[in-house]
Amino acid sequence: MTEHEKATLTPESRGGLFDNLESDRFDLVVIGGGITGAGVARDASARGLKVAVVEADDFAAGTSSRSSKLIHGGLRYLAMGEVNLVRRTALERKAVHAMAPHLSEPCLMVVPARGRTSLATFKAGIGTYERLGAVDDRDRHVIWGVDELPDEEPLLRTDPYRWAVAYREYITDDARLVLAVMRAAAATGAVAANMVEVTDLLLEDGRIDGVAATCGISGRAIEVRADVVVNAAGPWVEKLARMEADPPRTLLHLSKGIHVVLPRDRLPVNNLVILNTNDKRSIFVVPRGDVVIVGTTDASYDGDRPLWPEIEASEVDYLLEPLVKYFDIQPIEPRDVVATWSGVRPLVAQNKKDPKEISRKDEVWVGPGGMINIAGGKLTGFRRMAEEVVEIAAKELGRQLPEGPGKAAVPGADTGRDLDLYAEGVVDRTGISESAARRMVRLYGSETEDVVALGADPIVDGGVTLRGEIDWAIEMEAALRLEDVIYRRTRTAWYAPAERDKITPVIAEHMAAKLGWDDDRRATEIAAVQAHFDDEMAFKTGEQK
User: Fold this and answer.
1) Is-contact 227 27, C-beta < 8 A?
2) Fewer CB within 10 Å, N side or C side of the chain?
3) How many CA within 13 A on the CB side of residue 385?
């Protein structure tokens, strides 16, 4: 068996997958296929536990695909006094980079400063941040003045912003990081199933003994028995916790964040840039291939669509408004926006604080029936959260476990530090275009050539998404729906919006042939994805579903 075969998320058959889940008894069943659940599965499986993962939707469908695409320590939390949180996540940046260099690329974060006082404040804060994160001397922050700024970040206005501090952070692809971590778990024996929703908890002598679940594709009901159940369901943690105890010990505060996507030529920044909004919040400008991402908002959410939260015109205006104050550009209007996304963060509630004031720390607790619940936390800190949960699980199991996987590489990690240099080699070896190679390496890393071998041609003329990506998504990454491929495997919906309308029916036709869909199923898949596209852009017309 090859390393790829060991790390596949796609079972030989869904029926066989469910037979295995029902016939085996597991040490651990994890509810939730986001970054927290994937991290717990990776850690536990690598330490010898028999692990199952059940995810109600697709892997990374919720919060874990809706972030600002950054691996960062949360510099702003220093001002809130969260030194331990910042230390922990700042240190974890290096760990994630070691595990997945293709999914945690070093980039400069630029903080504009108006005067010497604010410059000194930024320098002091960033210096502390770097010490907490044990940043190497070669990666320490630099200061740019009016002589350097025109070369380093030409669009940044130098009339109000005479200086800038540039320090090291990392850009990621959150959904693909989840897939890579989940595949690492599968490589050590974890069994992971998407589109399987937990409907109840199984009890034996007052203790939770597993879960009852239903397949969202076939409707098959199954029972998965396990000695320990971990609730890592993100915004749905509280819903699952209420199956065990009402009310659960910890309540969540859901916070909605939206991002807007602009064409790169409309805002051609060189680096990540931090801007301040009118209400003194910080937002990010993040260049990514041919687009630039601007986000995020941070407001309490009490709606009934936590998987696809509404995007309001006022939220889009809020993110666009600061751009002209920082950059020498024509005002950017809502009509310039080519894509958007929204997500819900499951924060641990803190005395009725506003979301922007709530710590991103995680909290773990064990319910009266023995279910381990985890809430809060940051994308960057998933590895340490997983270790904490697995240690608690070991106590529940009465087991002494070996050391965990630590910073062990995930699939695709063998690229080296210079991704552009690796991409040049891919071009030489495969003949695909430079732009396609750069994009592919940042999604698939050292597995790029394996993906290209499945189909090197662009799916549509002039596009960057390759045909081989469809088969890879289906055969290796358990993509079951058109949405899974468009949104979370290829990232076309948000990263290549110029081609998404053309690419959708082509991918649907290929998936129909591969997965045996009839015409009605194919039409339903296309309609569902088109509805998401329309809903994400409905802020322009106010016609949201």
Assistant:
1) yes
2) N
3) 31
Query: Going along 66-193, which residue ranges are E strands?
Result: 70-71, 105-113, 142-144, 163-171, 191-193
* CA 367 to chain CA centroid, nearest Å: 28
Which two three-digit tokens encode residue 53? Answer: 């993962």
Rounded to an integer, what distance in angstroms lies between the CA atom of residue 344 and that of residue 306?
6
Q: Amino acid letter at 278?
A: N
Please, where are the H alpha helices in 133-269? 149-152, 174-187, 237-241
Q: Please give the domain boundaries of the chain with CATH numbers for all domains.
A: 3-64+175-251+360-397 (3.50.50.60), 106-172+253-357 (3.30.9.10), 419-540 (1.10.8.870)
298 in Cβ contact with 54 (< 8 Å): no
Distance CA 363, CA 313 (A): 34
H or E element that contains 525: helix 519-536
- DSSP labels, 4-53: HHHT----S-HHHHHHHHHHSEEEEEEE--SHHHHHHHHHHHHTT--EEE
| C-alpha of 484 from chain center | 14
Peptide bond preceding 154 in cis form (omega within 30 of 0)? no
Percent of the chain having pLDDT more than 90? 83
Q: For 284-322, what is the HEC assignment?
A: EEEEECCEEEEECCCEECCCCCCCCCCCCHHHHHHHHCC
Q: How far is CA 233 from CA 63, 252, 522, in A?
A: 10, 12, 29
pTM for this entry = 0.96
Instruction: State how far the alpha carbon of 62 is from the alpha carbons of 84, 174, 191, 415, 491, in Å.
Output: 27, 11, 20, 28, 14
pLDDT tens-digit readout, 475-511: 999 999 999 999 999 999 999 999 999 999 999 999 9
Cα dihedral 99→31→71→484 (10° resolution): 90
Whether the CB-CB separation of 375 and 252 falls below 8 Å is answered with yes
